[in-house]
Specification:
Structural class: alpha/beta
Helix content: 25-40%
Number of helices: 10
Order of helices and strands: EEEHEHEEEHEHEHEHHEEEHHHE
Number of strands: 14
Shape: globular
Length: 338
Amino acid sequence: MDSAPFLRYIVAGKLQRDFILPVVGKAALDVPGGSLIYAAVGLRIWEDHIGLIARIGENYPQEWLEQLFDLGFDRRGIRIVPHETDARYFAAYPDHDSRALKNPVAHFSRLGLPFPKSLLGYNEPGNQLDSRTQPTDVTIRMSDFPTDYLDATAAHLAPLDYLSHTLLPPALRQGHVTTITLDPSPGYMTPTFWDDIPAILRGINVFHCSEEKLCSLFQGRSSDLWEMAEALSAWGCELIVIKRGPRGQYLYDGIGKKRWRIPAYPARVVDPTGAGDVFCGGFLAAFRKSYDPLEAVLCGNISASLSIEGCGAYYALDTLASLAQMRIDSLREKAVKV
């Protein structure tokens, strides 16, 4: 059994088995991935004492769970369900600006690579809506993690299903968790869930959302990102961060009605997988230190820049602290208040 160290942070998310065809370099086939690991790595660059929460099937490699422990993460919140689950994820990056999640056979053929047997029968992601009432294999239950996890003071909820994101914030607030950041799932960022979003926002401090998911929610209502951020903030969440991939981030402070535009750090892109999750982890680390949202965005931005320069979820952990700080200082001068 793992020991029970003091925890400062909690990260909840998904564990995956990644099959990645990066922008450059060798394919990464059946390697550890998922929003949980990437967000935890983004946090671990700067901080430690991190507890992990996820659900995964019994076919998930045990050695990958042991690796998490060896890297200093508390894995006691990872629940193994008593059956197999399909946690495979495929992504191909034909160039720096595009990502393909479907038709893996065509992409392996394009590169002249043999199709991996472990990817046979892969179900490509669709546009399925989350359920408001029926839990899935990865829906987090309060019984999944030890009660001492509630002694942590900050938590990030990476993309999970609607039920997980509805149930977790109020439960965490019953403990010592005072800072909650959340990145929504595309399964509920749709007009169908419009009336359900306010309840989620009122329970968190920072709402991280990709431009794509935000536009999906506001379809037919608005096409202005700042207008969307104001609407979300009015529902009770003071800080809105819009992740725009290679175009950086927008930050909206609903209390001071302040807006910032932060460009992405000009990193050499090898593999963008998980960059948005790494950003969220880095953001939380800096936000808990200073409670300065702009500094937190800068830290998240640089965390993501370090991750995309190599392949694999753990690549950024080998970063020198001096390099990371140097990049933050450089990027700070380019942040623009609008």
